[in-house]
Design goal:
The radius of gyration is 19 Å and the shape is globular. It has 127 residues and is mainly alpha-helical. The protein has 5 helices and no strands. Bound molecules: zinc ion.
Length: 127
């Protein structure tokens, strides 16, 4: 893969990263609103008081990872890391280059289509 191609995928990844961060922000706002609504204003206040410090950070992390966008964000970060190390674009399973069409659709893809399908078939028990 040449430099301008790498740049293109890097841009795609960074764009997707922004989208995911925005998505997480929206999700989190919804969750905060739900908590406030169900507990009322006064207990909502004490909830937020007790929420400070590392506990809140742990909760944040758990939330990030529990959500689909959070996991996606993790994979996007990993892909950016690989790209900068010059390891981007090869399948993690068979080592062959991942097709450009696939990378354009899923820039954080770790597996080529063949390996991905194989893995999914194995998971669902189809041989
Ligand atoms: Zn493969």
């Amino acid at each position: 893969m040449n430099k301008s191609e790498l740049k293109k995928y890097e841009k795609l990844l960074l764009q997707k990263r922004e989208e995911m961060i925005e998505q997480l922000r929206v999700n989190k706002k919804q969750i905060d609103t739900t908590i406030k609504d169900s507990t009322g204003d006064i207990s909502g206040y004490s909830y937020h008081m007790a929420d400070q410090g590392t506990d809140a950070m742990e909760r944040e992390k758990a939330f990030m990872f529990a959500s689909k966008s959070g996991r996606l964000l993790y994979h996007i970060d990993e892909a950016i890391r690989r790209l900068r190390k010059g390891e981007y674009g090869n399948c993690h399973s068979c080592g062959k280059p991942i097709s450009k069409a696939r990378l354009e659709a899923v820039p954080h893809a770790r597996y080529c289509l063949e390996c991905k399908e194989k893995e999914e078939n194995e998971k669902s028990g189809v041989r």
